[in-house]
Each structure stands twice: as structure tokens, then as C-alpha cells.
Amino acid sequence: MLSPWCCNTAFTHMLSVFDRICDELGFHYEIDSGTLLGAVKFNNFIPWDIDGDVYVSTKPINDFFQPGQKGARALQEEGILGL
User: Has this prediction a pTM greater than 0.85?
Assistant: First the structure.
């Protein structure tokens, strides 16, 4: 693995929190590119891939980056986003 397991663990945590928040807020998202390929081919991350790919429509994504919005607050509470 090029990225240490701690990074994979951190990304897994971020993705599970993101999934929970999207579910609570009713947002649709899809894992994409290398993350999707790794999920299908390895049932995990691609060993040499060092990022995560998630597609979110432009309308709900603003809720994650505007201070005070539900998505941003939830990410802050999990220690993922520092606005």
C-alpha cells in the first residue's frame, strides 16, 4: 500500500460520516473514479490511489461549505471540516 492504513481508516471514517449526513439531509451522492473502481475490483481502496472521489450535485454541495448550514455543522462536529 502506498498510503498507510491510518489514512485508509481516516478516509473510511470521513466517507461513513458523509454517507450518514447525506442520508439525513436527503442528498444523493455517488462514489466515483478510483474509489468506485477500488470498491468493485478490490472491495476496498485501490492500493496505489491516495485520494477519494465522490460526486455530489452542485445544489446540495453548498450545504457542506456554507458556515451555519446543516451539512457544514455536522462535518464540524465530526472534526472533518474546520470553517
Answer: no
